[in-house]
């Protein structure tokens, strides 16, 4: 199958063991319940979409998964181990992320930004680093080489020495993905990876995420672009006012009238119109896939 026609449905049979398991996650801010008893299981080799109207609690849920917030209730496990709500420990355990509001080191180069992600896997202690002994120099060279490799992997091989703040917006988003990959994650969480991208960049981002999945990682992705989500994901979870409205295959989610209602209910007509259009288009994708000859 050519990559340009690749869809998640074609590979959804290949999913592996449960990797990320969130159970009964609740996040309250005073009287507001931003995340309301949400469960999510992500298997090895799976791409899972997280959708929902503005303010539904998607980013807050990511913050609970990655230790940025300590959930009011609930538990998050990675490969069977309970994750402590401490960002650095979560990264070391094997889960990394990108941010809705890009968080790069603006005055560092693209390469240095990726190297920062790598430092959670290096072992040089402070004294070795200060003295710049042979072990430090070897690790630093390895870190640099791996960072350059990752820049090339995300299509930014030409940006090595450019300051992050001078990169176009779409490239900054890809640089964040490279930094997340530098931590050697088992699962990577992407918060609106195509926000602000043009259609061509969005297609490239889609191919990059398939490539990441094909390299053996699990991916959870938040997006408002429904075409992107339905084409990319094996499963989709829709949150509304903090709670899970529906979880299922793209086909199941796109045919559930409550999903459109949830978007219309926000008064965001532009988004709900785009959603309806995408749902219709996805119908055609699914039908086309169903026409493929069945394997014995
Ligand atoms: N630190 C915080 N303190 C208080 N309220 C918060 C905090 N973080 C998020 N919220 C609230 O929680 C709710 C969910 O916000 P969140 O950012 O998770 O939504 P979202 O689904 O990511 O929305 P969007 O699609 O606009 O990014 C909102 O009402 C928001 O105002
Ligand atoms: Mg958000």
TrEMBL record:
GO MF annotations in UniProt: ATP binding; ATP hydrolysis activity; L-isoleucine transmembrane transporter activity; L-phenylalanine transmembrane transporter activity; L-valine transmembrane transporter activity
InterPro entries per the UniProt record, alphabetical: AAA+_ATPase (IPR003593), ABC_AA/LPS_Transport (IPR051120), ABC_transporter-like_ATP-bd (IPR003439), BCA_ABC_TP_C (IPR032823), P-loop_NTPase (IPR027417)
Keywords carried by this UniProt record: ATP-binding, Nucleotide-binding, Transport
Gene3D superfamilies assigned to the protein according to its UniProt record, in alphabetical order: P-loop containing nucleotide triphosphate hydrolases
Family matches, as PROSITE patterns: ABC_TRANSPORTER_2
A Pfam cross-reference name: BCA_ABC_TP_C
GO cellular component, one term: plasma membrane
Statement: the UniProt record of this protein carries the keyword Lipoprotein: no
One record GO biological process: L-isoleucine import across plasma membrane
SMART domains named in the record: AAA (SM00382)
Domain ABC transporter, residue spans: 20-266
Protein name: Branched-chain amino acid ABC transporter ATP-binding protein
UniProt source species: Kineosphaera limosa NBRC 100340
């Amino acid at each position: 199958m050519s990559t340009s026609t690749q869809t998640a449905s074609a590979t959804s049979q290949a999913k592996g063991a449960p990797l990320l398991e969130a159970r009964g996650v609740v996040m309250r801010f005073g009287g507001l319940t931003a995340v309301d008893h949400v469960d999510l299981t992500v298997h090895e080799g799976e791409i899972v979409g997280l959708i929902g109207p503005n303010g539904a609690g998607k980013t807050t849920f990511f913050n609970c998964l990655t230790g940025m917030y300590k959930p009011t209730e609930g538990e998050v496990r990675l490969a069977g181990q309970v994750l402590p709500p401490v960002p650095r420990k979560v990264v070391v355990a094997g889960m990394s992320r990108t941010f809705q509001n890009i968080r790069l080191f603006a005055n560092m180069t693209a390469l240095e930004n990726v190297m920062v992600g790598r430092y959670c896997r290096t072992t040089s202690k402070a004294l070795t680093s200060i003295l710049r002994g042979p072990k430090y120099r070897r690790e630093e060279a390895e870190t640099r080489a791996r960072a350059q490799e990752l820049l090339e992997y995300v299509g930014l091989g030409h940006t090595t020495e450019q300051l992050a703040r001078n990169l176009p917006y779409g490239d900054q988003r890809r640089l964040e993905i490279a930094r997340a990959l530098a931590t050697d994650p088992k699962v990577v969480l992407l918060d609106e990876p195509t926000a602000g991208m043009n259609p061509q960049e969005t297609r490239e981002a889609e191919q990059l995420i398939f490539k990441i999945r094909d390299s053996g990682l699990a991916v959870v992705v938040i997006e408002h672009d429904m075409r992107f989500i339905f084409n990319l994901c094996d499963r989709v979870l829709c949150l509304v006012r903090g709670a899970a409205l529906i979880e299922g295959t793209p086909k199941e989610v796109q045919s559930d009238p409550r999903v459109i209602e949830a978007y219309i209910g926000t008064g965001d007509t532009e988004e709900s119109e785009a959603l309806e259009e995408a749902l219709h288009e996805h119908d055609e994708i699914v039908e086309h896939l169903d026409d493929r000859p069945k394997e014995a």
